[in-house]
Amino acid sequence: MSRFIVGVMGGGETAAAEHCKMAYHLGKLIAQKNWVLLNGGRPAGVMEASARGAKDNGGLTIGILPDRDSRFSSEYIDIAIATGMGDGRNYINILSSHVIVALPGRAGTISEIALALKNNKNVILLGFDTGSLFNIYQQSGLLHPVSTPEEAICVIDNIRKKQ
Amino acid sequence: MSRFIVGVMGGGETAAAEHCKMAYHLGKLIAQKNWVLLNGGRPAGVMEASARGAKDNGGLTIGILPDRDSRFSSEYIDIAIATGMGDGRNYINILSSHVIVALPGRAGTISEIALALKNNKNVILLGFDTGSLFNIYQQSGLLHPVSTPEEAICVIDNIRKKQ
Amino acid sequence: MSRFIVGVMGGGETAAAEHCKMAYHLGKLIAQKNWVLLNGGRPAGVMEASARGAKDNGGLTIGILPDRDSRFSSEYIDIAIATGMGDGRNYINILSSHVIVALPGRAGTISEIALALKNNKNVILLGFDTGSLFNIYQQSGLLHPVSTPEEAICVIDNIRKKQ
Amino acid sequence: MSRFIVGVMGGGETAAAEHCKMAYHLGKLIAQKNWVLLNGGRPAGVMEASARGAKDNGGLTIGILPDRDSRFSSEYIDIAIATGMGDGRNYINILSSHVIVALPGRAGTISEIALALKNNKNVILLGFDTGSLFNIYQQSGLLHPVSTPEEAICVIDNIRKKQ
Questions:
Q1: C2 class by beta-carbon count within 10 Å (0-12 exposed, 13-18 middle, 19+ buried)
Q2: Is C88 on the interface with D (CB under 8 A)?
Q3: Does C135 touch chain D (CB under 8 A)?
Q4: Nearest to B114 among A110, A117, A137 (CB)
Q5: Which of A24, D26, D115, D124 fits A53 for a cystine, CB–CB 3.0-4.6 Å?
Q6: Is it the case that residue B163 has pLDDT exceeding 90?
Q7: What's the first-to-final CA gap in chain C, in angstroms?
């Protein structure tokens, strides 16, 4: 059976230092669980930080690139998937992840949260307050707000037990 | 030069009757302007209602389908584009529209608003309160909340003058 | 019901003058039949020539662009669909066309013939000798070699009668 | 830097036993080189055989699935990328592979060879006679006909030295 993949989404160039730090720690915990980390693959923000956290701890990292050429990937990505589809690749990020953790981000990250919920995937909001927009999905149990990477891992463990 | 395309997004099977009525009226106004109406092409909710409003008034309608087969399109769609990409087609909806009008919807519609803003497209929110999530884009002038189809048309006219 | 779409494929920048002339004539015949012409939308070769032939004769033309921006389309395209997917859009060309006519081309055109046959679409080879590679599909009746645009139209008429 | 990926293409359900055997051996050799094997991910034909050959020899395997759900992947796939794009995913197979080996196949495989050549990728034809259709690319040095998996590996080694 193919390996369990956790998608980590969040801000790119505009990401705050505290969120990159949290992403690094999350990547570390994912690697320690022996799960695969998947993100958007670019060398920026939450993507790069989470991949670095996983790589520094022996993890395997997958980057789903918007570009046509895998040379544009972050140096912390093991497997670069070049889609040539721009932001169209956000849909592939979501479908390929068994569960998604979303740190604070802008429209790109919000599109991924929305596509995930539309496709019935569990989304863990790590320090990301999305207001009331997704309330209906919180009621249906797909949306999980948490404050720390440790809590995110705990929620994923619970989701896996139910599956 | 290719024709001016207005993308109309919003709820599918879950759309309320009042929003479908508003979508029908918007489709009528778009047709009267001789603009092309583009939507997700399925025979449901805001999509079907907006296409019907345009067709009843001599407009041209384009449906970007998630399906592999154009036979799944609404009967009010003139040109059915079969993408075979599921919700991945939301990205094509956005890129192909010169401006987007979003009526109330769930995660699918929210993903389209987000992808539009990410790709620097003007988004008119027609009776759709998205809370504070997209505030940063309202400040940059890309997000336009309005209450009536007439106001939506007026905003589009103003955007066209600037382009 | 949505309109009948004929996809016209063939060489871009490398297309020979005689093939562009044939594409122009084919576009004219498609328009006279009141069918919609669909192609790759770029201002080059068989694409541009077929769209011009249709436009000069009152037809409607759809261009499925590889680009993120519809401004890159040929001036003879009425409806520009911006996919942002590069050659990935070849799949959409095929799925959206009810039947495909392929004039001589290189790898791009061959990929479209192959994707069409894979997806059970009829392909008319107009002056394009593809050797023995697709023999199996000729035996199954999906591949139709012809020499003139008039013959291509005749084959399409026959296909429509059977559907 | 991300790892070197060899794409292995070829027939699915219709693949002959001898080609599956050759695919298994190729997968083994790719794994022994410590390269990553990428294919279309489905549990059939050349795809499954090549992945099994790699897995039996400690390799890492990536499957780019046409499906929306990674549960449809072959059991010999480590990392299942669910694209939800049907045959549209053939484009991603090509862009993500640094070099492609094509065993005999039908239209799907031919579309991948064509997309690869269009995007300037080296294609090794392993026991696959494509006739004269791609002659122009053989002259430009992108197309490499070979008879055995060992020769394929040798060609890849030479390509890597030049890059």
A1: buried
A2: yes
A3: no
A4: A110
A5: A24
A6: no
A7: 14
pTM: 0.97
Q: Does the beta carbon of A76 lie under 8 angstroms from any beta carbon of chain D? A: no
C101-152: pLDDT as tens digits: 999 999 999 999 999 999 999 999 999 999 989 999 989 999 999 999 999 9
| D84 touching B (Cβ < 8 Å) | yes
The Cα–Cα gap between D31 and D29 comes to 5
Residue C39 neighbours by CB distance under 10 Å = 30
Count residue pairs from A and B with Cβ separation < 8 A.
67
Tokens 């003879």 — which residue? C76
Answer for the pair D135, D142: CB distance below 8 angstroms, yes or no.
Answer: no
As a whole number of angstroms, the distance between CA D2 and CA A151 comes to 30
Q: Tell if the CB–CB gap between A88 and C86 is shorter than 8 Å.
A: no
Angle CA C43–D88–B79, to nearest 5: 55
Which chain D residues are within 8 Å of A69, Cβ to Cβ? 95
Q: Are D27 and D8 contacting, i.e. CB atoms less than 8 angstroms apart?
A: yes
Q: Mean pLDDT in chain B?
A: 97
Helix B17-32 and helix B149-162: axis angle, to 10°?
40
d(CA C35, CA B127): 38
AA identity, residue C94? I
- Convert A127-138 to b/e letters by CB count within 10 Å (16 or more is b): bbebeebbeebb
CATH hierarchy code of domain C5-162: 3.40.50.450
Per-residue pLDDT at B81 exceeds 90: yes
Write down the pLDDT at residue C5. 98
Looking at residue C75, its amino acid is E
Report the Cα–Cα distance between both ends of chain B, in Å, rounded. Answer: 14
- Strand order through the sheet with A36-39: A79-82, A60-65, A36-39, A5-9, A99-102, A123-126, A143-146
Which 3 state secondary structure label does DSSP give C81? strand
Question: By the CB < 8 Å criterion, does B87 face chain D?
Answer: yes
pLDDT in tens, A71-116: 999 999 999 999 999 999 999 999 999 999 999 999 999 999 999 9
- D99 within 8 A of D119, measured Cβ to Cβ: no
Choose among A67, D94, D104: nearest CA to C108.
D94
Quote the pLDDT of residue B102: 98
**With contact defined as beta carbons under 8 Å apart, do B51 and B76 qualify?**
yes
Return d(Cα C102, Cα B43) in angstroms, integer.
32
A56 touching chain B per CB within 8 A? no
Query: How do residues A126-141 score in pLDDT, each as one tens digit?
Result: 999 999 899 999 899 9
Chain C nearest-CA distance from A29, in A, is 34
3-state secondary structure of A111: helix
- Contact residues on chain D for A163, CB-CB shorter than 8 A: none
